[in-house]
Amino acid sequence: MQLSEKFLKAVISREPVSGYTHDFYRYPARFSPVFAREAILSFSAVGDTVVDPFMGVGTSLVEAKLHGRNAVGTDISSLAVFVAQVKTRLMSARDLQEVENWAASIEESLNLRNAPVRASDWIELGYQRNISTKRTWPIRKTIELALSKVQELRWIRQQEFARCVLLKTAQWALDCRTELPSAGQLRQQFRVFTSEMTKRARAYSDAVHANATNRCKVACLHRSAVGLEMDDVWENISPPKLILTSPPYPGVHVLYHRWQIQGRRETPAPFWIAGTTDGCGASFYTLGDRKQCDLSNYYIHAQHAFGSLARIADPETVVVQMVAFSDPSWQLPSYLAMMTAAGFEEFRFAKQSDSADGRLWRIVPNRKWYANSKGNAGASKEVVLFHRLR
Rounded to whole angstroms, how far apart are CA atoms 245 and 40? Predict the structure, then answer.
């Protein structure tokens, strides 16, 4: 088998994440939709099942649905699962119109002169940490006022879509910004995002129906991949033809569960806005502490996860991964040894690689990696790994 030119171009693609519902939320280390699409087209057929055991916000699931594949995704982050569910859900034109009407109807309620509607339970649990300062409180209050109106929408699917719009708006206003917008600018951006996201959700639903792929099943599971072979989801879905994923990167610090506010201060506010609860510290989401000298915890947890995937795979299953390392010289061999211990063997397309090791590597453009005490220059490159059952 040879890789198509489209797939090879997709590996090195520098196109920004966009199209359909892909940019509903800016999640760290997201898959390129172009890469996900070409991997799905190259290694599966219509009616097959695609699994992403570290799905993040569901890029691979959106592409699988668009191209007639069943899809199963898992993630331990309730925030990621929330966004993935909104992105993959088919919304009717009426649903989306009601969200637009709701957003227009609450505009006058988002005035800072109105009485506050404090989220007392969330505040007590610390979910508004670092967003009630002199510079951030207008944004926090505007979001609070809007969230207090979400229940006016009739259906849960509409309410979750509205929360996702507010999540995107608040991230735009707060995350990794030095200059914060005013409350007026926030309200204006909320209107812009409502219009854009309803339009893109409508285009996604129309494309799925036009391709007659609306009967394909999509399952976004809030769980670890460990033990996935025992999940009830397999009662209605066939074993995977393709396992397509980008796992947490060994030794690389990626902040999956927090926003950074005006520097290095962190907030768990996205969980509050989504109406979901946080899990644990950073190492919970990255399979282990990146500062551990041999990353043994990471590889143990990864082996358990891929061991479960080996038990749902069959001889025709292909595993395609996009991975980066803070120091590939020793972490890549350790990663490959972990995959072997889990029950997989690597295969390569050496003749189509321009790297000495016969693998496909790409430079990651404009990625904002957070500081790593070891230095993470290696993480500016990603490698595509191919495996199948031993």
Answer: 11
pTM here is 0.94
Smallest CA-to-CA distance from 256 within 225, 280, 274 is with: 280
- The β-bridge partners of 386 are 320, 347
SS3 387: strand
**CB-based contact 18:206 (threshold 8 Å):** no
Q: Give the model confidence (pLDDT) of 94-138 as tens digits.
A: 999 999 999 999 999 999 999 989 999 999 999 999 999 999 999
Tens-place pLDDT, residues 138-197: 999 999 999 999 999 999 999 999 999 999 999 999 999 989 999 999 999 999 999 999
Residue 293 to residue 250: CA distance in whole angstroms: 11
Per-domain boundaries in the chain: 5-78+216-253+290-389, 93-209
Q: Which fold has domain 5-78+216-253+290-389?
A: Rossmann fold (3.40.50)
**Alpha helical stretches, state H, the chain:** 5-11, 33-43, 59-66, 78-88, 93-105, 120-124, 137-147, 156-174, 183-210, 269-274, 282-285, 296-312, 328-342
Closest CA to 25 of 179, 145, 200: 200
Beta-bridge partners for 96: none
- Asked if the model's pLDDT at residue 349 lies above 70, the reply is yes
Can you tell me whether residue 276 is helix, strand or coil?
Answer: coil
Type of residue at 364? V
